[in-house]
Specification:
Belongs to the class-I aminoacyl-tRNA synthetase family. Glutamate--tRNA ligase type 1 subfamily. One of its GO terms (biological process) is glutamyl-tRNA aminoacylation. The chain is an alpha/beta fold and 357 residues long. The strands form 5 sheets. Strands 3-4-7 form a 3-stranded antiparallel sheet. A two-stranded parallel ribbon has the order 1-2. A two-stranded antiparallel ribbon has the order 5-6. β8, α7 and β9 form a beta-alpha-beta unit.
């Protein structure tokens, strides 16, 4: 099988620049290799879900020009593509880990775990790891609620091979026996991610650098389940002009905000594609198809990429001029600008009315 990549956002809010850049890099890589790009919705953290976010994410991605071969709306041979609809699959592999001895049931409740944190204990103290199989079976037969934890090997070095950052080594002593399956039958993020990437035959995982150290947990899971891991590709951080890491807490960093301000979709897309990737050439005004033809992992930088809005304005002007040279394209652009002006004026009038009363 050739290149298969995925963009897997959580529906917890708007699509922000970091997520949009990740989606675009996946799309460029798949397109350049005539591969497949999949959209998967990771909604296992039910408490953080925001109604309408899934639809908003898909709308923003469509606006940017990112096209998926498989998704919740399009379907596909590896579906369903929403994690909450795949619970039986995660439970199946959790049982395999239990039966194979790479996982164990943990009967510690919230009160005990909270007590450990209050005492300053770093991570879980592995109390239930010491239970014999007979003791664990007796607890389960009594109906005691339990989570499933990974039995992390002791005194080992976990090696992560990354296409951008090279070989990264993490001591297993720094990794706690993470929960894989919660008492309600829902998986945790890391477990669901590994199971889905394997079952969907993902060949390359492109995601933000903030997940690099967590990848050691994924490598342990791949090893425990007897699976070959995909090629990991971690993308450099996005930072503001002051060097601060972009996050959902910072205002004005959502894709929607740029759309509402009248930026052209292709300009925002090109701008994001050039954040942390040097293979786009010096000439601005390129389409996603042109960028995909030149995209390679070797052009991805390790250094943080600065989100410079002045650069975005310059890119937007280039694309704007290109539209003006085509009468049909110029007419479409004029209609979009008229709608943008109408929306802005309506908002301004409402603000004036509110101030008056």
């Amino acid at each position: 099988m050739g290149v298969r990549v995925r963009f897997a956002p959580s529906p917890t809010g708007l699509l922000h620049l970091g997520g949009a850049r990740t989606a675009l890099f996946n799309y460029l890589f798949a397109s350049g290799h005539k591969g497949q790009c999949i959209l998967r919705i990771e909604d296992t953290d039910q408490g953080r879900l925001v109604p309408g976010s899934k639809e908003g994410l898909e709308e923003s991605l469509q606006w940017l020009g990112v096209q998926f071969h498989e998704s919740p709306s399009k379907g596909g041979p590896y579906g369903p593509y929403i994690q909450s609809e795949r619970l039986s699959l995660y439970q199946q592999y959790a049982r395999e880990l239990l039966n194979g001895g790479s996982g164990y049931p943990c009967f510690c409740g919230k009160e005990r775990l909270q007590s450990l944190r209050q005492r300053g204990t770093t991570g879980y103290d592995r109390r239930c790891r010491k239970l014999s199989r007979r003791q664990a079976n007796e607890e389960m037969s009594r109906g005691s609620p339990f989570t499933v934890r990974l039995k992390v090997p002791e005194n080992e070095v976990v090696c992560v091979e990354d296409a951008v950052y090279g070989r990264v080594e993490i001591k297993s002593s720094t990794i706690e026996d993470q929960v894989l399956l919660k008492t309600d039958g829902f998986p945790t993020y890391h477990f669901a991610c590994v199971v889905d990437d394997h079952c969907m035959e993902i060949s390359h995982v492109l995601r933000g650098e903030e997940w690099l150290l967590s990848t050691a947990k994924h490598c342990l899971l791949y090893s425990s389940l007897g699976w070959k891991p995909p090629q990991f590709v971690h993308l450099p951080l996005l930072v503001s002009s002051t060097g601060e890491k972009l996050s959902k807490r910072l205002q004005g960093t959502s894709v929607l905000s740029y759309q509402e301000r009248g930026f052209l979709a292709e300009a925002v897309a090109e701008f994001l594609c050039r954040l942390g990737w040097s293979g786009g050439g010096e000439r601005e005004g390129r389409s996603l198809e042109e960028l995909a033809a030149n995209f390679s992992l070797s052009g991805i930088s390790r250094s943080p990429a600065t989100v410079d809005e002045g650069k975005l304005m310059s890119t937007n002007k280039r694309h704007f001029r290109r539209h003006l040279h085509d009468p049909e394209s110029a007419a479409v652009l004029a209609r979009k600008l008229a709608e943008c002006v109408k929306t802005t004026l309506t908002w301004a009038i409402l603000q004036l009315i509110m101030c008056r009363y």
